[in-house]
Specification:
This protein is mainly beta and 154 residues long. The protein has helices at residues 2-13, 130-140, and strands spanning 24-32, 37-49, 52-61, 64-74, 79-90, 95-102, 107-112, 115-120, 125-126, 149-150. The protein has one domain (23-150). 15% of the residues lie in helices and 51% in strands. Strands 1-2-3-4-5-6-7-8 form an 8-stranded antiparallel sheet. A two-stranded parallel ribbon has the order 9-10.
Length: 154
């Protein structure tokens, strides 16, 4: 009887609609007729292996290109970033960011425009792309108020 009660309580504590990540690929194009400008972008979420995902965003607009990739691990209710890469180039100010998340040693290492970056890795920290997936999960879970610690590196 006690086990049945514990099982029932455990079931009641689960969210009604658990958010499950699903791979996707979305392509976008932009074309302004009044100005000779065209652009395209692609956003993709792919499962790399069990519990490990990659979120990618690649965009180009005539004179600017932007690439952002986040590799992260998931379990039932948390995301753990593993690697983040960002690159912007073209006629605008170029930028390159790399971040590697070492959960065993609790450090974030990498570079920001060639300058070395070394930061402490706190539980719950996210990168500039993985927080978007966390937000999506939290909204689907019905959360009304959320906040995230996002590593910037600057």
């Amino acid at each position: 009887m006690r086990n049945a009660l514990l099982f029932a309580l455990a079931l009641l504590s689960l969210p009604l609609h658990a958010f499950e990540l699903k791979p996707f690929n979305a392509s976008y194009t932009a074309d302004w007729k009044t100005v000779p400008v065209t652009g395209s972008a692609e956003r993709q979420l792919e499962k790399i292996q069990d519990g490990v995902w990659k979120l990618s965003f690649d965009a180009s607009l005539m004179i600017v290109s932007l690439t952002e990739h986040s590799l992260f691990r998931t379990d039932t209710d948390t995301l753990q970033p593993l690697q983040y890469r960002f690159e912007r180039s073209g006629l605008t100010k170029s930028k390159q960011v790399s971040q590697d998340f070492d959960w065993q040693n609790k450090t974030i290492s990498g570079s920001d425009n060639g300058d070395p970056v070394s930061l402490p890795l706190n539980t719950g920290i996210l990168d500039k792309a993985s927080y978007q997936v966390a937000l999506q999960r939290d909204v689907m879970a019905g959360k009304k108020s959320v906040s995230y610690q996002v590593v910037d590196g600057e």
